[in-house]
From TrEMBL:
Organism taxonomic ancestry: Archaea, Methanobacteriati, Methanobacteriota, Stenosarchaea group, Methanomicrobia
InterPro entries, per the entry: Ni_insertion (IPR002822)
Keyword presence, Cell membrane: no
Designated name of the protein: LarC family nickel insertion protein
Keywords noted in UniProt: Nickel
Presence of the UniProt keyword Transferase in the record: no
Pfam family, one: Ni_insertion
UniProt organism field: Methanoculleus bourgensis
Length: 286
């Protein structure tokens, strides 16, 4: 961890962020500094190798800075990388609610040595929302237990849940369980994962922006075996046109069972009828 002050920095910064209870954090480009510094391992270039490694993996933007000293330490880089959840360019119009300043002990000429944080209110993007990503790796869970867990997660409010085959340590076969969670459901869903999977650790990637296409449900009437059926078709829109569409599964399955025909036959007939209807309306490219 380094010196005691690094521990104090981490605890203080995390406590401050937790007390603010914000929905996300945007970090402006980080100034790095230049030159050389002397540490426990000798002379090293600025920015320090640890700082470079952390920022390289974070996706945060940086600027060189115009001072011959270290402007961003590994501890500072780690905090910014962990806290950042939103790109500044994605914020859009915002209202400043509060502002805070933290001053350092240095007094460089030409600029104040302060860190400024602003509490903003941002209008949510119409074409998206923000979600938490929950992940855990398991290698001792049966397929039946996985299927049951995924179903329970969806029942408890997950936006999506999946199990991805993975090769674990020592070559064991396992799964990466990934859940897309509304922020207000994260605690509930992590509880389901822990109880059903017996996992000892769940990673949470907080407040990821998710693009969501405009969606509508369009009723489509189709004739099958001499009978008319009306089945809902879920449509995704982009640029005023339908970009994708799919018959609603439960209704399609119920029709297939009642008629005694394969599901794919019903789905294909509904998709063909939907395509003709949408082309006639001018909302789907031929």
């Amino acid at each position: 961890m380094g010196a005691d002050d690094a521990i104090a920095d981490v605890v203080g910064a995390c406590t401050a962020l937790h007390s603010l209870d914000v929905d996300g954090v945007a970090v402006l480009p980080v100034a790095l500094g230049r030159g050389f510094a002397v540490g426990a391992h000798g002379t090293f270039p600025i920015p320090a190798p640890a700082t470079v490694a952390i920022l390289a993996a974070s996706g945060l933007q940086t600027v060189p800075g115009d001072e011959d000293r270290e402007l961003c330490t590994p501890t500072g880089a780690a905090l910014l990388a962990e806290f950042a959840t939103v790109r500044p360019a994605d914020l859009g119009p915002r209202t400043i609610r509060a502002v805070g300043y933290g001053a350092g002990s240095r007094n460089p000429p030409g600029r104040p040595n302060v860190l400024r944080s602003m509490l903003l209110v941002v209008e949510e993007h119409a074409a998206g929302d923000r979600v938490d990503i929950l992940e855990t790796n398991v290698d001792d869970v049966t397929g039946e237990a996985l299927a049951y867990t995924l179903a329970r997660l969806m029942e408890e409010g997950a936006r999506d849940a999946s199990a991805i085959p993975a090769v674990m340590k020592k070559g064991r076969s396992g799964h990466l369980v990934r859940v897309v969670s509304p922020p207000d459901a994260t605690d509930r869903l992590t509880g389901v994962m822990a109880r059903e999977l017996g996992t000892l650790g769940i990673r949470c990637i907080p407040m990821v922006h998710r693009f969501v296409a405009e969606r509508t449900v369009e009723p489509v009437t189709v004739t099958l075996r001499g009978r008319e059926w009306t089945i809902d078709v879920k449509c995704g829109w982009a640029g005023g046109k339908i970009s994708s569409f799919k018959p609603e599964y439960d209704q399609t399955a119920a029709c297939a069972r009642e008629l005694g025909v394969p599901l794919r036959e019903v789905a294909g007939a509904v998709e063909a009828a939907a395509r003709r209807l949408f082309i006639e309306r001018g909302v789907l490219e031929p």
